[in-house]
Structure formats: structure tokens, C-alpha cells
Amino acid sequence: MGGTSGRPSTAIRVEGLSKTFDTAAVLHDFDLDVRAGELLGLLGPSGSGKTTLLRIIAGLDFPDRGRVLFGGDDATGLPVQKRAVGFVFQHYALFKHMSVADNIAYGLNARKRAERPDKAEIKRRVGDLLDLIKLSGFADRYPSQLSGGQRQRVALARALAVEPRVLLLDEPFGALDAQVRKDLRRWLREIHDRTGQTTIFVTHDQDEALELSDRVAVLDKGRLEQVGTPDEVQDNPASATVLKFLGDAVEVEAIAEGGQVRVDGRPVPGVVAPAGLIGPVKLHVRPWQFQLTDPSAAHLRGTVRSSHRSQGRQRIEVEHGPGRPLLVEDFDGERYAAGHPVGLRIVGGYVFA
Amino acid sequence: MTVSTKPRWRAKPRWRFRQPSVLPGFGITFGYTILCLSLVVLIPLGALVVRSSRLGLSGIWEVASDPRVASALKISFGVSLLAALTASVFGFLVAWVLTRYRFPGRRIVDAVVDLPFALPTAVAGIALAQVYAPNGIVGAQLEKIGIKAAYTPLGIFIAMVFIGLPFAVRTVQPLIAEIDKEVEEASATLGASRRATLWKVVLPPLIPAVLTGFALAFARGVGEYGSIIFIAGNLPYVSEIAPLLIVIKLSEYDYAGAAAIATIMLGISFLTLLAINLIQAWSRRRFGYV
Ligand SMILES: Nc1ncnc2c1ncn2[C@@H]1O[C@H](COP(=O)(O)OP(=O)(O)O)[C@@H](O)[C@H]1O
Ligand SMILES: [Mg+2]
User: Fold this and answer.
1) What is the pTM of this model?
2) Where in this chain does the record put each ABC transmembrane type-1 domain (chain B) (predicted)?
3) With an 8 Å Cβ cutoff, are B288 and A158 in contact?
């Protein structure tokens, strides 16, 4: 099916990548396709191998097994200088002794004379990039005179200057405070929309990945758990790991029979048990898939342990048996005091084979 | 009128005493610092200047233009300069190898670097003289290819490199250790060759530290006495250093002459250190850190 016209072509493919550091396996037989022009988010907990994957694509590390393909050509053995990738590091890695303009021009100046644009052209390109990163007046400053967010924008412009085949961003906003992160996220999305640059960016922040990406790849322990659009991975998580990583969820004891999933004898609407699955199962429920109801008509009963409000929603912890408290999200204005008995109706959830 | 919008980092604050911190005792520690500095540094140097000022400028000039004194000064400063340059280059290489590579015996080599610091200078001097004497281990080999090390300016040079090396190594070593691997990788991803990365990204930020090491090695070389006099042979006009000449003048009870040479050395040393400090200040500004 791959070659149909209209379908975005594959810009980068990694096949069967394995990488072991010392004795610890960091990537296991890893496959991933990156489409031309897309913004792909690599999401995974710390230590899941995201940086390693990115560095192998860039040619800063080399796999023990497997291949890296750029537009169909094997690039596995290609040295980093020849790969034409733009890499943005979490801690900027700017050249401290060069001005902002010199930092951005570095990649162009580093080219062989025959391929190097002339001085005026370099100056023009640097000017354009400074406009793009909204730092036009800052050409002659040094990195030490910029804020963290500004430094990271310079690092991005420096990477874009060489017109890379792919832009690789390793937790680009990880060292910045919450407000700057949010601004830069939106700004990165804008830049991507404008330039159409194939981009892979790494994050361990679900919100960031879901807000920014065209597609999200979820990693865990060096394996690819799932790739899909933010909607796909949220609506149909491939595994409990993906589900948990994308947001809060609690496990509820349930019984699968005849395609239905029942809790306390009552079927849970909207949840279909995987074919052939019969007997006790774990139902994973998001906080907003609970509804507070009359205890008599509920799937579960418990008492309110605590509740707090934030951004128009009420989050309630409900004590239920010996396990961890259930987390319930409610838009209802009614406030529940601790100790209040409540019933919970489950209106959705996920069961994995 | 418009308010000045001078960027903050350039605005020069008016001079004033450092604001007291939460820790008490600024007054007493400041006073103590000035007292010690005065007793140990300022008063002796002041006395030296006063002593030689009795000669007057013309008197000092007379001493300086004595051919033997002039040649000793030339040797002291000229050879120190060459030795400091050499120590800077080799010291840089040693520091680079010690921080960037892992090899067996690295810690031992690292410790050996400090030996010239720790060794009594006379011990170093005798050892060097032994090794480089015409019948010494190295001296004999050099003799075969027609190079005389002991009792020539070359001997002085060797001793000065020896004592200057630790300064050159220890000033750049921490900076080399701090080089951010990601900065080099960033350079590589932008297409720069390893050589370009080294020259354009890795080395320039180290220049201020190299200059500092150079200045220290130079100052040490100019002032060095114990480790040089044995290997130098101290032939007037050939291998006689200025500090030795001071000692000779003193032993001849020519206190004024000794003070005059000392003052000249003080002046030249002061000027060189000032020059080097200016270079450092410039390079710090140029390379953008404080
Ligand atoms: N150069 C290295 N040497 C040894 N172990 C490494 C090296 N780089 C990464 N690792 C290990 O590989 C695992 C994955 O690291 P990394 O790719 O940085 O994960 P992530 O970026 O997802 O946090 C970690 O357990 C880490 O300790
Ligand atoms: Mg990482």
C-alpha cells in the first residue's frame, strides 16, 4: 500500500534497531517510519531510550544491529557530518564564544568553499532566521546575554540554517519553566506549519506530545508500544502501558463474558471485551469515565476521601475497598465533603487481552 | 527627555563597597586582608622602591645600562618568555591528554605534573644539572648531536619550562574537563569536520585560561632562582640571570645596585602582567563570559 500517490512518503525509516550499552539493552528490535513533513512526537518515560534513538538517527551513536534509512537510502554507516540532520539539545549547546548571528551562520560557514553561499547570502539567511525566531535585534548578542527560551530559539535557528533533511529535538523545552514551555510549544507548531520541516521531537510530557504532534510514538523500555495520531493513541491505546502513560487511570476488577464487560453484575456501556476473552479482567478507567450517581444504581460504591477544584473541574478521590483510591473527575458544581457516601457509574474504559 | 535604555548588562555600576551579606564581619575581614597584604606585599615592595629611589632615575638608568646587567635582564625576560610559550603549548597538550583520554597510569602522570610545584627548587636545580650536564643521561646524548644544554641559555630555558609547566597545565585542565560534549556534537551535526570543530568550537573558549597559565609561567620563570643557577653555569653575558646578579651585588655590599636591578625587574614584571591582564580582559569580553 505504501506507494499510493497522495499518501505522504517516508522520510526516515529505522528497521530492527538494537542498541546495548555495557550490558543494558536500550533499544530492542525497533522499527519506526517517519513521514515527510510530519511533526512526530517521541513520548516515553525517562530512560526508555528516546535520546538513544534520536542520536542513532543523527549519527551521534551507532546501533548494534538494524538500519537507518533516509528517503530509502541506507544511512546507517554515514558519519554525522554527512547526514544533514538538525539536532537541538535540551541544554541548547550553543557556542558561547560566538554571537547569535555567528551561531546561526555556523553550519553554512562550515561548508566546503564550493557549496558555501557567499557572505551576503549567508547574512540574508541569518536575517531571515532571526525574523523567524523573533530575535531580529539580537544578532550581536552572546548566548550568555539571552534567556533560556531565547537560547533554545537560537539553537533551533542554527539547526534550521543548514536546511536539514530532518530536525531532531531532544526534550527541547525540558530546561524551561512552565510558561515559557507553553509559549515555545505553540511557536514550534507555528514554525513547523510554516516550514513543513520533517521533525522528530522527544518529550516525556504527555500534554506536550499530544498538543504538538501530528503523530505520537510511545516508547517503553526500548520498545515501540504504539504509533498514531493523538486521537488514535488516546481512543485506542494499544496497551495498558500506553494508556497509563497518556494520563491517569485506575484499575477496576471486572468480568468479561459474551463480549460484554460487567462490574458488580452491571454491564459497562461502550466497552467491548476483546474476542475470546472470558472471565476476570482488569478494566482501566479514566477519571472522566466515572459518573457520580445514586449508590443504588451504581457499579461501585465508596466514600469521598478528598476533593479539590482546579480549572473548572472537580477531582475527587473515592475510597473503595482496600486498593488505591479511585480518581474521579466531575464537572458538576456540587461539592462533596470527605466521608460523603457516593455511587460511581462507569461509562467507558479499556480492557486489554 | 527619553529615559536611557542602555542594556542592563552594560550599565557600569557606580563604585561602592560590596553590600554586606548575611554573614557578619566584613569590616574585620577587610581590615585583616589589607593588613596582611601590607605587611607581606606592599610594605616590602614600597621599601624597595624607596631604597632605589635614592639612586634617582639617572642612577637606575646607569645600573640598567651596565652591559652585564642589561644582558642579565635580557636573558631573564627573553628566556622566560620563550619558556612560558613552550610551557603553554606543552602544558596544553598534557592537560588535553590527561582529561580527554583514559589510559593506564593516567593518575600517576597527573600527580607527576605537580612535582615542580612541590620540589624544593634547589633539588630540582641539582637534578636538572645532573641530567643535562655533558656527562648526564640526556646531556651526553645532546652533546653527540652538538647541542650544549648545561651552562648555556638553553639550560636556563629547560629549567624554566620545567617549573612553568604545572601552571600551564593546571589552569587549562579544569576548562578542558568542562567542555560540553554536546557542543562538539552540535558542531558535527552542522556539518563541521573534526578539525573545524576543534579550531572553531573547542579551542577558542580556552584562550583566556591558556593566557593565564602563560602569565603565571612567565612570572614564575622571571623570578626563579634555585632551580636555574646550577644548570645555568652563570657565565656573565651568556647565562647569568638577573636574580643571580642581585645576589652577587648584595654579596658585594652594593645594596643600591641590587635594589636598582630589583626595581627594574619589578617594573618590567608589573608591565608584562598588566599587559597580559588586559589581553585576558579583552578575551573574556570577546568570548562573552564574565
Ligand atoms: N552512553 C551511555 N552509556 C551507558 N548507558 C547509557 C548511555 N546512554 C544511555 N544509556 C542508558 O540507556 C538508557 C536509555 O537512555 P536514553 O536513551 O537517554 O533514555 P531517555 O532519553 O528516554 O531518557 C538509560 O537507562 C541510560 O542509562
Ligand atoms: Mg533523554
Assistant:
1) 0.81
2) 73-276
3) no
